[in-house]
Amino acid sequence: MALTLISKAFAQDQAIPKKYARAGENLFPPLAWSGAPDSTKSFALVVEDPDAPSGTFRHCGIANIPAQWTDLPESAETAPDRAPRFYKNDFGNARYDGPQPPRGDRPHHYIFRLAALDVPRLSIPDAAGINAMWAEAKKHVLAEASVTGTYQTQ
């Protein structure tokens, strides 16, 4: 079985609800996955907008998600008993920051990428940011899955 990733908040290639955008409530959307390889020791996640005017823009980076987890709840950064480790995004915040494409742009695509890793932890300092975290994660990928939503500022 292949690794799969879904969100109850939006379907593949469909619009992300405003409550998950920066202009809305800026909540992290709920995600769930299945089919991780048996040898998975942890997960890493990145959320990126490849349609940003300056090139791919990363909205969220999470590492050291325990191997036994199969989901991240809505607003995962505030989950009291299982808040994962967030890295600084391209806004400069160590949290999720939702879609915020320029007004008038066509809909942007927001790709939520989950990687099953062969290591229990990535030893990347928080200050290193998403790019360094994801580069290190890519060295340890056993499987990867993604779900893509769209968003357009009205």
From TrEMBL:
Coiled-coil intervals, chain numbering: none
Gene3D superfamilies tied to this protein: PEBP-like (3.90.280.10)
Biased composition (Basic and acidic residues): 79-88
Ranges for region Disordered: 71-105
A Pfam family reported for this protein in Swiss-Prot or TrEMBL: PBP
InterPro entries named among the record's database cross-references: PEBP (IPR008914), PEBP-like_sf (IPR036610), YbhB_YbcL/LppC-like (IPR005247)
Domain of life: Bacteria
Protein name: YbhB/YbcL family Raf kinase inhibitor-like protein
Source organism of this protein record: Rhizobium leucaenae
Organism classification: Bacteria, Pseudomonadati, Pseudomonadota, Alphaproteobacteria, Hyphomicrobiales
